[in-house]
Amino acid sequence: QSPDEVALCDGSRLNGFTFKTRTQTDVTVETADETLSFETLNVLEFTSDRRRMSVIVRLPESMGGGIRIYSKGADSMMLSLLRDGDDDIKQKTLDDIELFCKEGLRTLILGYKDVTEDEYEEWNAVFHKAETALEDRDNKIEEASKPMERDFIIMGATAVEDKLQDEVPETIYNLLRAGIKVWVITGDK
Length: 189
Prior knowledge:
By secondary structure, this protein is α+β, with helices and mostly antiparallel strands.
């Protein structure tokens, strides 16, 4: 699990939703009142070019049974994928992200949207063709993903500490001791 996934699970638990299990086909979440099973239809994997990850699920019957796509990604990417409107919550989220970044935290924006069965089936046929392409598969998957990954409703943001890997602090210290200038470059703010 990534630090983001741990933070999402911890935050969900604090708000009454406890992650129970995940299989290839579903995710189970427990609330105070019921156990909810979300059928996993597609996972649009994170890549450094995409700077986001999305999952398409069929909601439990108690939530209407429709199809929903959840997405998390870098603010620089996700902001352009949000639906028009919601200006107050977008601005509040951006203000929070700025504060989090000043504290050295890595941030993600979360969003979702509901799609009809017909929209999903039409999109999934194109996506499946891209997934099974023998040539230029990555570009075809990216192009096929675009129609589904837009017009998200903003849910909020996460902020997690991005700890250095083992021995990095010692390596930086030794480089500095040797008189070597060190610049740390990240993809974040």
